Amino acid sequence: MIRKNPRGDLPRIHPSAFVDPTAILCGLVIVEENVFIGPYAVIRADEMAADGHIEPTVIGAHSNIQDGVVIHSKSGSAVTIGQRTSIAHRAIVHGPCRVGNGVFIGFNSVLFNCTVDDGCVVRYNAVVDGCHLPPGFYVPSTRRIGPDTDLASLPQVSPDATGFSEDVARTNNELVQGYKSIQNEF
What is the chain written as a DSSP string? Predict the structure, then answer.
């Protein structure tokens, strides 16, 4: 469902993107080319700052927002998802938040008030809150990363993890084409 926010902003979706009919996109959401947005995802840019301003929520080209993902933002702050980035099933991305290019965010993970730079991998059930994760860092499953975390304790992304992330992005890009070809059949 595509709908306006109370201020009247309507999502802008590139014609080459696929948005599942069960997904909800509300407000100042920008979806770039060849993006896959899966079943029951919710992407809302509807909360305003005290002065009525809203920054956009941008989903970068060739990225995928999988089943049940929630992307929202506090008080009109920005959420930016980079290109070729995968946000896996039931993850929550709550702004203010910036996720770079070629990032993988695992199942049920939570990002809030943070920056996750290019090439990072955040595995399932992890939390990244109130910090800046530099490029190429690997967050193991169930780990909580916050402003007091010693980032030197985190490993760099391995070639295997990078390959996995790239495969997920590629697979979901193929889903865009497949679902676009049959979208008028359901």
Answer: -EE--TT----EE-TT-EE-TT-EEEESEEE-TT-EE-TT-EEEE-PPPTTS--PPEEE-TT-EE-TT-EEEESTT--EEE-TT-EE-TT-EEEEEEEE-TT-EE-TT-EEEEEEE-TT-EE-TT-EEESSEE-TTBEE-TT-EE-TT--GGGSPBPPHHHHHHHHHHHHHHHHHHHHHHHHGGG-
Is residue 47 part of the annotated active site? The answer reads: yes
The active-site residue out of 32, 33, 47, 174 is 47
> What is the per-residue pLDDT across 82-95, written as a single tens digit (0 to 9) for each?
999 999 999 999 99
Whether pLDDT at 124 is above 60: yes
Looking at the whole model, is its pTM more than 0.85? yes
User: What is the assigned CATH class of domain 2-185?
Assistant: mainly beta
Indicate the domain borders of the chain.
2-185
